[in-house]
Amino acid sequence: MATYLSVVIPAYNEEKRLPQSLAAVLDFLKRQPYGSEIIISDDGSQDRTVAVTQELLQGFPHQVLVTPKNRGKGHAVRQGMLAAAGEYVLFTDADLSTPIEEVARFLTYLEKGQDVVIGSRALPDSRVEIHQNFLRETMGKIFNLIARGWALKGIHDSQCGFKCFRRETAQKLFGLQKLNGFSFDVEILYLAQELGLRLLELPVIWRNSAQSRVQVLRDPLAMFWDVVRIRRLHS
């Protein structure tokens, strides 16, 4: 059976969270009428992430990509997206803050002609069932305002880790990507808009994971600087 959907999950020291997340993804995919694969893109984990993944995914179509040294979420996602064989390619965070079942709606829109469909926590119909703490949520809103003012047009939430692409679109966008850090989402969406691709933002269910990999004081500064650099990187 041809691969219809590839699910890309970037991972860094995720041996504790991956078993539950992969169980949910496997349960969903096995119930679908189409062929699928799971791609774990390991970003230099120092725990048993790779071994645990290989054990859990035995017997199901999968790839485990290993980067020897930690290079950043953007690098891990890019590796997975470029390796995907599916007609459509979803990347989602290892904590499944957005339930995997949400992808069904995304695929409907992609089949109707959209090139990129992204999840959003900031639309009127979005359901944020577990919030981040006040500091993280406030900094996230400030970051989105900066991204919208400097690089993006009309996108309410660039950082929700649940985005789906046509495979040819993913190959084009991630082939151009240059940022390795957390701001890669803004870069990908900026490129999509610059190329005139059909991009749709949809409300999703979202439940914050208390074990976020974003360092609340260090990473936002690097992210803001990266957003400022995006136009220059692609001028």
Key words describing this protein structure:
single chain; 235 residues; alpha/beta; seven-stranded mixed sheet
Q: Mind explaining what this structure looks like?
A:
By secondary structure, this protein is of the alpha/beta class. It has helices at 18-30, 49-56, 73-83, 103-111, 134-150, 167-176, 184-194, 219-233; strands at residues 3-11, 35-43, 62-67, 88-92, 116-120, 127-130, 162-166, 199-203, 205-207. The chain has a seven-stranded mixed beta sheet with strand order 3-2-1-4-7-5-8, sandwiched between helices. Strands 6-9 form a two-stranded parallel sheet. Strand 2 (35-43), helix 2 and strand 3 (62-67) form a beta-alpha-beta unit. It is globular, with a radius of gyration of 17 Å. The mean pLDDT is 91.
Give the SSE layout.
Blueprint: E1 3-11, H1 18-30, E2 35-43, H2 49-56, E3 62-67, H3 73-83, E4 88-92, H4 103-111, E5 116-120, E6 127-130, H5 134-150, E7 162-166, H6 167-176, H7 184-194, E8 199-203, E9 205-207, H8 219-233
Parallel strand pairs: 1-2, 1-4, 2-3, 5-8, 6-9
Antiparallel strand pairs: 4-7, 5-7
| Overall strand count | 9
How do the strands line up in the largest sheet?
3-2-1-4-7-5-8
Query: Which H/E pattern describes the elements?
Result: EHEHEHEHEEHEHHEEH
Number of helices: 8
User: Which regions are unreliable across 5 or more consecutive residues at pLDDT < 50?
Assistant: none
Strand content: 15-25%
Rg from C-alpha positions?
17 Å
